[in-house]
Fold DUF4132 domain-containing protein.
Amino acid sequence: MPLSPLAHRMRTLMTDPAAERPDPLPDVSQLSPFDLGTLLPLAYRAAGNGVAGGMRFLVEDAARQRRPLFTPEACLDLFVALVNGLNARKWADLCVAAGALLRCPDGPPLTDLAGPARTLVRFLLRAGRTDHPYALLTVAGLAGLDAQVARTLERGRGPIAVGEINLLRDWDVQRRALLLEVVQDRSYNSPPPLSDAWERLAAIPEYVAFARTTLEAADARIAAIHAHELAYQADRAFDGAEKETIGRAVRLALLRDEPWLPDLLTRLLTGVAVAPTAARTLPSQAVLYEVGRAAQRFPTPEVIVALRAASSVTRHKAVPKQLDRMIKRAERSLADRVEVAFRMPDLGFDTDGRLSVPLGDHTAVMTIGDDVELTWWQGDRRLKSVPSALRRDRPDEVKQLRDLVTRVRRQLATLVRSLEAGYTGEAVHTYAKWRADVATHPIAGAVAKRLIWEIETSPGHWQSVLPDLHDVTGRPIAEPGPEARVRLWHPSRAPLADVTAWREHMTGRRLRQPFKQAFREVYLLTPAEERTGVYSNRFAAHVVDYQKLYALFKQRGWETDLLGPWDGGDAGDARRVLAGGHWRASFFHDYLPEEGDYAATDQVRFHHSADGEWREARLAEVPPLVFSEAMRDVDLFVAVTSIAADPEWVDRGEDRHHAYWRQTAFGDLPPSAEVRRDALARLLPRTAVADRCTLTDRFLVVRGELRTYKIHLGSANILMEPGDVYLCIVSARGHDAKLFLPFEEDGRLSLILSKALLLANDDRITDPTILRQIRDHREPPPAPLLRIDD
């Protein structure tokens, strides 16, 4: 495979001692996969901090992020380079060597590799370097040293891990290398794992059988611990190697959606989550979390239920919180597995979402609407609470019913999160499956009926409907064929007239949606972003409460490292993978080393995954739905955590941020606040204070008896007229719990409405803190608002 001119230049820079440092540095993103495979052995040989060393780091960094390919000659050269480096390095990166065996399209030269492989394996065994055991076992297969390596690796490992080693000994080296692709502790310089590695492993019958045997053995061991047949030691039921083997077995079974898995996994997880004694420890916290991580990669509704069951029985205080984070990530990932996402038991509910349970002279009735409600009846008379006779005589059945309420709520929460997360992958279902599993399902139907759907009535033409097959005007549409495609409606794909009509429809029918859909924000590419090309500054230069921001990242499924006043803690980015793993959004931010715990927001960038490599993308190349949903999250991060959202910050914050606080607290509206304004325009006429309220471009103006108030639609902060005097109300009073809201996410809509209801009747306010501010006319007018032009 001929090298590109750039690769020739890189080779010269790494091998010519007289080479001078290039300026600018070579753009290694232009190297082909075969260029990288040829240059990698040269990079491994390059030493020092000079020009050759600098080029080495560029090549190795590119190989870590992309997918190098090797000719047979380059593959052999890599093994020889690893041998040549043994004396200086006292180690060799066998993960890179084993990975090359799978990245050699013409096949690796197995016979020629045997000699270097023997040298590498014997050296590492003498040095006691077995830190990457599966890479060592793979290269040992080339060297004919299986037995020696296996004996070494088996020492200190439990029987479950030893079983996996024995299985691998019967495999050829390329199958062994395939397993290495899914091992967690690969070396730092390993290339990205092959995107189809799990699918290829799942097609190996021996490994499928081993996965079941492994999980049955783990289940039996936990059962023996709880039966006191094995001694209990906290977190010692499995060793570290066994934990990893179990994790791989779970992932394989989840990927294949094995029918035997749910019951076994529920037993195993509830067993590892609680001690066989009264202790608050666990038999294996490590295995519990490993299954949680597996569920994020290959989620099913059943594994989420099993994790919730484990969370409910554990006595360890910290475990439920950690599991809850894992469960939420798994729920979002479930959207990418269309074939299993909607699977849900009906639990005995009828098609109207109702379950009646006779209990002697009484009946417990559970109904699913906006929430799950449990009521108690005696004949046709509804009772206020659980009858005393049932509390006394049938407490276990009462508890089971309450537990069922919790279970149904959790199932609905899982469905809602997976449906919403499916937007970026543009999940599509057949009409027959959607009708059976969602629209008419006794439990899922309660969610589906409050959402807008689209049915493809002809190629490329989508009709928006509710599940009863009526459009926004109430007109019925013909029932489509079983193979017709169905997807969730999104306002970014709809004409403005349709969006407006659906918003009016939802408000008029008082349909509270399980997540914001009709009123969902849409983020379009701006001219400024077209000019910057690969990054957006739309949400840059905000000052935010960092601890709140970090917590919100975790809550919304964005991965990030904790920043703080330590080395390397000054800047970072939060990342979320979208659209079934094809796109990644990154939100950059900097830690502000000052009193308080603040961060400054920066750019948003996008990367696209192609052949296992993440490549930075121009914003114009990002699918509109992916862009909109990612920017929606970033808008939420800023809106919720900005210091401008804290009404008390102005009294305690840093002076140098006061201008930012005032500009943001009362400045132009982001898209989330524009949607809030539209919702208020529909809701206010239905309130008792409608005649006292006026919507302007940025404010809800409320006329009270004492003063006139301007509530900002973004921050919910308040200015009083005359003079735009700031009014601090920490929490709203007088919120009307009966007021219908079509959506609620960050609480800002209800906060604005409750403040409006309070201030419209300001002559009835009794709180002295609020009254003192309203009646104090001595405060000088504040500085004029700053305006920052784009």
Q: What stands out?
A: The first strand starts at residue 354 and ends at 359. The longest helix spans residues 395-421. The CA atoms of residues 136 and 232 lie 33 Å apart.
